[in-house]
Specification:
The chain contains 19 helices and 23 strands. With about 525 residues, it is of the alpha+beta class. The N terminus is likely disordered. Keywords: Hydrolase, Protease, Serine protease.
Amino acid sequence: MKKNSNKYLPLIIGFACAIGVILGAALDFSDYTSSPFLSNNTKKEKLARLIDYIEYEYVDDVNIDSIVDITVNGILTDLDPHSVYIPQEEYAMVSESMKGDFVGIGVSFYSVNDTIVVIQPLEGGPSQKVGIQGGDRILYADGKPLFNKNISNDSITEHLKGEENTKVVLKVYRKGNPELLEFNVRRGRVPLRSVDAAYMLTDKLGYIKINRFAESTYKEFKESLINLKEQGATKIALDLRNNPGGYLGEATQIVDEFLPDDKLILITRNKKGAVEKTFATNSGNFEEGELFVLINENSASASEIVAGALQDNDKGTIVGRRSYGKGLVQREMALGDGSAVRLTIARYYTPTGRSIQKPYDHGNKEYFNDYLNRYKNGELINADSITVADSLKYITPGGKVVFGGGGIIPDVFVAKDTNFEKESLNLMLRSGYMDRFIFEVLENDREYYNSLVFEDFMQIEMVDEKILDQFRTFTIRENFQVKITDYEPVLRRYLKATMAQQLFGSNAFEQIVNEEDRMIEKVIELSLKK
């Protein structure tokens, strides 16, 4: 079970990989006493001895766990911006966010007046299969009441989660039904989708949006690609905007779908100088089709591996703005107590040999403020403002000039819309601010909204003047200061997209949001020229 729908996954994932970690194979350091790294090293023993002195001899009681956490964080901070510590209490959430599924009943919900109200059953989950709908109130689980002022979300989760294939009997109130409905739900694996959308932009151009590279991303992508080809797609737009990265293997498998056999995808080099190269295989499913890759300043890590590998092999067109600039590889290592570190263990290079890691020698604060520097120097508005060094110039096999030194520079630049009011509306949309409002709108007439099919929904003007007035009142009540009068068409589209998200899922949401999207419009324009 999830408290929020798939649209909020980037908020959860933001913690897990906001800095775009690339995960390799995990190492088990649980048996640290026998590790060769720790034996006969007096400097390491000194640190352990100091902590023992503080624990047993210091005059006041001290939380040793917090000291250890601070020490570990301090050590990692001095290494590089992407080596991070994951405390024990956060590890389960971080790990789950990068898996392809979880075990539960599969609903997103709000707590309304101390009652669990389903926003929507998650696609492919157990609740959807048995017929639970948005707006349903889950009142009992195996006879235990779930409506109580004192019941916490953790407690609710405890009642609804369980072992895979175990059953839970839910009693549900649905508006319009005089008696409670009973559902026997068999807990199962609920997909955590990393492909937000896959649909046709034109009769030949398919669109796939990936929000992160998790355990199931390649499988989801492959299914989407095959489905789009069956619909007639001979061209693909791969949207990696705001994708912070994730698993290295998932990214290289996706690149393999577009490159011929034996083409170089990636080079990694560790501290000992050992070099590993990853090549394309003969399993590509879209080696001949036209390709467009959408990136922006928040496309990081594994996203940059995809864009860089395709650009260096002269495959497709990279569209958008310069990417984040992360060329470091992390591996997750257990610390033996349920916590872990993600430690930088190598650098990666694109097929032409360029590193796209931006400098971090001025400290982490300066490193993470790079976006502000880009904004100030104007490169988000004008491609000519991007600073490149001739010493970092590389030539692709096809003769194209590319640069290293801090991100992937696109082949076709699309400026960012920096209008404050429109950006504020977009922030409201992507942060989930509009969701509670739309949930209340849907609750006013659940029977009608749940009866709609997507094709009819798209043709109806769902957001009328009454809903707009209600939203204006809502923004005042929530103290959100934004002038929406001049952007009414955008606001209508965003509210309708949020409505579609709660009724039909992320694919419907993206289709509506992407209307009049500058970058997608540019991709469509480019696809029609070829």
